[in-house]
Description:
Blueprint: E1 2-6, H1 10-19, E2 24-28, H2 32-39, H3 48-56, E3 61-64, E4 75-78, E5 83-85, E6 90-92, H4 94-105, E7 111-114, H5 122-129, E8 135-137, H6 147-152, E9 157-159, H7 164-176, E10 184-186, H8 189-220, H9 224-232, H10 253-263, H11 271-292, E11 298-301, H12 316-326, E12 331-334, E13 342-343, E14 346-349, H13 352-358, E15 361-363, E16 378-379
Parallel strand pairs: 1-2, 1-4, 2-3, 4-7, 7-8, 9-10, 11-12, 11-15, 12-14, 15-16
Antiparallel strand pairs: 5-6, 13-14
Helix pairs in contact: 8-10, 8-11, 10-11, 11-12
Amino acid sequence: xxxxxxxxxxxxxxxxxxxxxxxxxxxxxxxxxxxxxxxxxxxxxxxxxxxxxxxxxxxxxxxxxxxxxxxxxxxxxxxxxxxxxxxxxxxxxxxxxxxxxxxxxxxxxxxxxxxxxxxxxxxxxxxxxxxxxxxxxxxxxxxxxxxxxxxxxxxxxxxxxxxxxxxxxxxxxxxxxxxxxxxxxxxxxxxxxxxxxxxxxxxxxxxxxxxxxxxxxxxxxxxxxxxxxxxxxxxxxxxxxxxxxxxxxxxxxxxxxxxxxxxxxxxxxxxxxxxxxxxxxxxxxxxxxxxxxxxxxxxxxxxxxxxxxxxxxxxxxxxxxxxxxxxxxxxxxxxxxxxxxxxxxxxxxxxxxxxxxxxxxxxxxxxxxxxxxxxxxxxxxxxxxxx
Length: 387
């Protein structure tokens, strides 16, 4: 098969590498640096498996920064970002719509696979507009930093169509995976869109549940670890995804919970709204707890969401930082991902040792061996030392 991938973020890159094991894959991205990285066998994302595959595996893969007009593709995968727009109270799907329009304008006779997260009903609407083009939504369930790993060992494959082309694409995904027996579920488009949003909403709910448990324990002077261990031994709950944090953040959970709440318009609900409110309340609570310690200078150790991630967008650390600064407490930041000298008027430190000296309280969402010598300065809710 010949496949075009639009967008070289986490989803696009993981899909391109996975499928190029057995197919010819062309990657298009507006960012020339990402295209150059792919062509130089360097991962454009922070992902160990992607880096290893690009260096060691024989892949039929190339990147282009000019749209490949005139070429014929069996599938075009759209993996461009969709963000929640608070002004319109809806997903901004303009990048996806622009891709579909461009493909239609150039008369591409190909099946379009959308792997970007969508609001419920999106595919049905665009399919009516572009009725000569088959458009299929295939939700992804990838973690940052483990995107290719989760593609090689998928928990499941969800295909938002029952068509022949949908079945061919499902076979391509399973063919590239290490787990050949992965369960594949074929659904209608709205059901596939809903499954993605509800899966992420459940994960967000689990994060907020254990965070509220931790807030309770902190307030009452109890041992959070002992409570969580006792609760998690119930097999119906499980001993996983239960490490407290400063709140959920990153690419998916914030926007997907808000979008799902928007889709609940005129549908009775309480949980969806509570998940979003709880996440905000957690950051408010921890901001007050940090202020109670009366630090002279607070150091923010990395704004990225978690270890192995290069994403600082909507990270919970930013929410904590804003609340600390609102108390009039000076904030300094150690974040290697930021090249600028300041971030929201707080200085960026390049020297970790100087950062440790200048901060009398260091807050980190996830602890690190880099901070082993200053544990007496650390404020974290990383109980189990894992994500």
